[in-house]
Amino acid sequence: MRLIVHPFFDPETSSFSYVLIDPGSRVCAVIDPVLGYRGSPGEIDTEGADRIVEFVKANDLIVEWLLETHVHADHLSASRYLKSRFVCAQLGIGAEVVALQQAMAPHLNAPIAVDGGQFDRLFSEGEKICLGHSCGRVMATPGHTPACVSYAFEGLVFVGDAIFMPDFGSGRCDFPGGDPLTLYASVQRLMVLPDSTAVLTGHDYAPGGRHHQFSATVAEQRFGNIHLGRDTSAEDFARMRHERDALLDLPTLMEVAVPFNLVAGSVSPGELKSSAEGLAA
User: Fold this and answer.
1) Mean pLDDT of 174-189
2) Looking at the predicted structure, is the pLDDT value of residue 279 above 70?
3) Beta bridge mates, 128
4) Which positions ≥6 away from 71 have C-beta within 8 Å?
5) Which CA distances in Å does 207 have to 170, 202, 225, 249?
6) For 86-124, how does the pLDDT look when each residue is reduced to its tens digit (9 = 90+)?
7) Nearest in space to 199 (alpha carbons), one of 71, 92, 69
8) pLDDT-based confidence at residue 43 (cuts at 50, 70, 90)
9) Model-level pTM?
10) Cα 213 to Cα 94: distance, rounded to the nearest angstrom
């Protein structure tokens, strides 16, 4: 049986989360879940995460994995909250999060452990992930951040913010440790996956007012991505990305979201904050 994907959209951050299901075993993984946060009063909103809880319970699923593609800067991760609801689930992220913790720690207003111990699993390049009767693998896809990974299963790859829908292009590279040449190389690895592979993105901003979409095939990305498709060179991509990123505002929640997600939500939002210096690329 083929794996089943059920997307969840968060309109506040234009983020997609996913429940990936092995129908033969009813085992599932939740990928990049979003926790709502109202910055001024500092209130947590679990409505979006609770929709995932309700879906899991309604379909009698077993959550085995809570998977993060990277340390998000625009929203808080709901993985820790979901782990409190599904106690046997393992929370995983790319192993390079340790290096990011070490780099960010001096810029935080409180000390943190910098060994990745806040997560249950730290995934390395090529590591296997079993989901019921199916198996996938971890692909290191840094560039948007140095700790980005993608999760590739048969016919599917969850890419976080590495690339978006073809008409929106690619993720920014001006966060700490980001680099457009590194992202270019990462995307080339995705582009050689089988043509029919579905690329599932972490966001969609619906340019031109079209309906929100979450998936395009590798072939559609290879030939139609406005930043990385066809014969775009690494140098041209890096130049475009530098120019574009210089015009972008930082995400509203960044000074709260990055520290919170860096430690897997093991502290209250706002308890840790990062300095403006620490948020600069």
Assistant:
1) 96
2) no
3) 137
4) 93, 97, 100, 145, 147, 258, 261, 262
5) 13, 15, 13, 18
6) 999 999 999 999 999 999 999 888 899 999 999 999 999
7) 69
8) confident
9) 0.95
10) 26
Residue written as token pair 């976080």: 160
Per-residue pLDDT reduced to its tens digit, 122-144: 999 999 999 999 999 999 999 99
Domain boundaries, the chain: 4-251
Residue with tokens 């609770």: 50
Burial letters for 231-266: b for 16+ Cβ neighbours within 10 Å, e otherwise? ebeeeebbebbeebbeeeeebebbbbbbbbbbbbbe
CA 255 to chain centre: 17
Cα dihedral 35, 71, 57, 120, rounded to 10, equals: -130
What are the CB-based long-range contacts (under 8 Å, 24+) for 195-199? 195/219, 195/222, 196/155, 197/152, 197/155, 197/156, 197/157, 198/5, 198/155, 198/156, 198/157, 199/157, 199/159, 199/163
* Domain at 4-251, CATH from 3.40.190.10, 3.60.15.10, 3.40.50.150, 3.90.1150.10: 3.60.15.10
Beta-bridged to residue 123, according to DSSP, are 94
pLDDT of residue 166: 98
Amino acid at site 68: E
> What's the DSSP call for residue 162?
S
pLDDT at 281 over 50: no
Give dist(CA 274, CA 256) in Å, integer. Answer: 7
Q: Which of 151, 153, 154 is nearest to 162 (CA)?
A: 151
Report the chain's terminal Cα–Cα distance, integer Å: 44
Is residue 176 very low, low, confident or very high in pLDDT (cuts 50, 70, 90)? confident
Tokens read off for 271 = 């308890």
